[in-house]
Write a structure and sequence with these properties.
The chain has seven helices and 14 strands. The chain is α/β, with parallel strands linked by helices. The chain has two domains: 104 residues, no CATH class; 174 residues, von Willebrand factor, type A domain (Rossmann fold).
């Protein structure tokens, strides 16, 4: 009888332990924050330590429990190509820049390329031979409307399924959307949920670029918007993005899950440095 009682007690303890673990999985969230740090000359600042950073969520200080610097983390990168009618003069520059960019990505980085115009289409993944990318881009023509928001939803959704904490979406576009089924607000929410950094490469006259769409989205995500004239090469801009991803600091902390938008702030006290990181996340 004693043995039966002891076994029952052990079973109860085991079940309580499992239940606690399941509760932990449900209620605790790992928040990933990637931080770009530059000095007043726009140079990346290396060799900062965890103790240099202060991290706040909704105004409350958080304990930084994960800290990595520079290129120790692999990335998952999405590339979106606007092939709508407004890109007719710009498409060749996109193709050339993407070919150069994907050739120099670290071998452990995963990436995909998708086109968007009247529809969003996945045209290449890093698991396929490079010839597939060249052949797929060769057939692309600029025509029709632009489903930019649909493409951003597709890209952020695909990156969200990755277990890699660093996710970046690079979109070649003028920022104009005239055919999507999703709204700007829906994209803003998905970016905050997925933790995707948005980098926009706007090629052509700045007057024709919808910066009111691109700038806020890249800013809240911790990314950037680049403006490139038709006379300038795209490759140097993509080089800047690749370098930035490899120079970022990764800060992570655990917090209880709470529905809604949570504001983030990163500080480096006592140093005159420029800090860029996502402004919040959504649970």
């Amino acid at each position: 009888m004693k043995n039966i009682f002891f076994a029952s007690l052990c079973l109860c303890s085991f079940l309580m332990c499992v239940a606690a673990q399941e509760t932990l999985k449900v209620d605790v969230n790992l928040v990933n924050v990637f931080v770009t740090v530059k000095d007043d000359r726009d140079n990346f600042v290396p060799n900062l330590t965890k103790s240099d950073f202060r991290l706040f969520e909704d105004g409350q200080p958080q304990e930084i429990q994960i800290f990595e610097k520079q290129d120790k983390l692999d990335s998952n990168i999405g590339i979106l190509m606007d092939t709508s009618g407004s890109m007719v003069d710009i498409l060749p520059y996109m193709k050339r820049g993407i070919r150069d960019f994907t050739r120099v990505l670290p071998k452990n980085d995963n990436y995909f390329v998708a086109s968007f115009g009247t529809a969003v289409k996945l045209i290449h993944t890093s698991s396929q031979p490079r010839k597939n990318l060249d052949d797929s881009m060769e057939t692309l023509k600029a025509w029709g409307t632009s489903k930019l928001f649909d493409a951003l939803q597709f890209g952020a959704g695909r990156l969200m399924s990755s277990e890699r904490p660093r996710k970046a979406l690079i979109a070649f576009t003028d920022g104009n959307d005239n055919g999507s089924t999703v709204s700007y607000g829906a994209i803003e929410e998905q970016v905050q949920k997925s933790g995707t950094m948005l980098y926009f490469v706007a090629i052509g006259s700045p007057i024709l670029v919808d910066s009111h769409t691109l700038e806020p989205l890249s800013s809240i995500s911790g990314g950037r918007t680049f403006y490139v004239s038709k006379q300038d090469a795209v490759a140097p801009v993509l080089d800047q993005i690749r370098t930035e991803l490899s120079q970022q600091y990764y800060l992570g902390y655990y917090t209880l899950r709470r529905p809604g938008l949570h504001r983030l702030r990163v500080e480096i006290p006592g140093k005159n440095l420029k800090i860029r990181a996502k402004s919040g996340y959504r649970d």
